[in-house]
């Protein structure tokens, strides 16, 4: 399972930060940061989700008011949002 985070879409509500500790606040930019991720393209970051964090990652995606976070299974099928 992996997560994609579109930093350009993020509006800095930081609800994801409260739900999953992989997200951190970047107060200077007014956007969240997905720790330990790789930049796939401009402002699109990808990270594997550890098995013990799957629930938190899904909840972070659901909590995002602008759907900047998407969770996929290992086959690339979108699970959330």
From TrEMBL:
Keywords: Electron transport, Iron, Iron-sulfur, Metal-binding, Transport. It comes from the Archaea. The keyword Transmembrane does not apply. GO terms for molecular function: iron-sulfur cluster binding; metal ion binding. Pfam families: Fer4_15 (PF13459). This is Ferredoxin. It comes from Haloarcula pellucida.
């Amino acid at each position: 399972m992996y997560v994609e985070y579109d930093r350009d879409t993020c509006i800095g509500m930081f609800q994801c930060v409260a739900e999953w500790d992989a997200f951190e606040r970047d107060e200077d930019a007014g956007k969240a940061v997905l720790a330990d991720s790789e930049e796939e393209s401009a402002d699109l970051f990808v990270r594997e989700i550890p098995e013990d964090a799957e629930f938190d990652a899904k909840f972070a995606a659901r909590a995002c008011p602008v759907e900047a976070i998407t969770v996929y299974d290992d086959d690339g099928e979108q699970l959330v949002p």
